[in-house]
Inverse folding.
């Protein structure tokens, strides 16, 4: 009995020594967890602007280039250069040698344009310019001042745009021009009265639009208009002076450059 007791005691003592955490449960210090901040590589988002896009900004919602449904208003500086290709003069019904010359002019121009499709647009220009008219080589005179007149030539043009929805978009077009002459003033001397008739003709043009920022575009345009001017000076057989009639192929070349905005 003594032998059995002596064997059991050491065995129990060994088992207690092998048990995990035995003898340490009462003295172990509890673990403490600390929530430390963690560094992040993410870039903070920019402050919200509530979807606002400035007038002179290109934003995520800004459409690039021009296309179907776009409507533009353009303000340009316009150079009007009459070519005076061919002239005919009559004095009291008799044909005489000579040539009509018309001065060049710079004037502002307002244009309205609408895109029917991505490629096809129509535009209407409105401008008015004042020109001096003279005759050279008439009756032995080197130069005779005839007078001056303002011309209002509204022009409708249908244009084909080659690169819709691109920043750079060249085009060509065809159209027609009607021209009214107003505020006509005779020069005096040989010309006491002056009348200029309504005229018109076809036109062709070429140019390009370039998107600058947001809905703002730069435009450059060259038009060639084909029209004749018909003018009468003094009364037929009257006492104001010799009756002078002139036909002149104005055929003006019109060059414009300006800024336009898309609505």
């Amino acid at each position: 009995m003594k032998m059995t007791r002596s064997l059991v005691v050491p065995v129990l003592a060994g088992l207690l020594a092998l048990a995990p955490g035995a003898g340490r449960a009462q003295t172990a210090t509890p673990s403490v967890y600390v929530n430390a901040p963690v560094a992040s590589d993410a870039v903070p988002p920019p402050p919200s602007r509530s979807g606002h896009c400035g007038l002179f900004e290109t934003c995520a919602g800004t459409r690039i280039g021009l296309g179907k449904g776009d409507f533009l208003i353009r303000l340009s500086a316009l150079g009007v250069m009459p070519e005076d290709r061919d002239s005919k003069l009559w004095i009291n019904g008799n044909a005489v040698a000579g040539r009509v010359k018309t001065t060049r002019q710079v004037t502002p121009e307002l244009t309205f344009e609408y895109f029917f499709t991505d490629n096809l647009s129509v535009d209407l220009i409105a401008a008015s310019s004042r020109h001096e008219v003279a005759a050279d080589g008439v009756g032995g005179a080197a130069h005779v001042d005839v007078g001056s007149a303002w011309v209002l030539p509204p022009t409708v043009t249908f244009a084909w745009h080659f690169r819709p929805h691109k920043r750079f978009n060249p085009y060509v077009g065809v159209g027609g021009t009607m021209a009214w002459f107003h505020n006509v003033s005779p020069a005096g001397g040989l010309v006491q009265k002056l009348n200029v008739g309504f005229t018109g003709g076809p036109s062709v043009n070429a140019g390009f639009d370039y998107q600058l920022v947001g809905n703002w575009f730069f435009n450059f345009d060259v038009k060639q208009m084909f029209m004749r001017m018909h003018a009468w000076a003094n009364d037929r057989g009257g006492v104001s002076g010799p009756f002078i009639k002139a036909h002149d192929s104005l055929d003006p070349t019109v060059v414009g450059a300006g800024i336009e905005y898309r609505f």
Remarks:
- The longest strand covers residues 168-186.
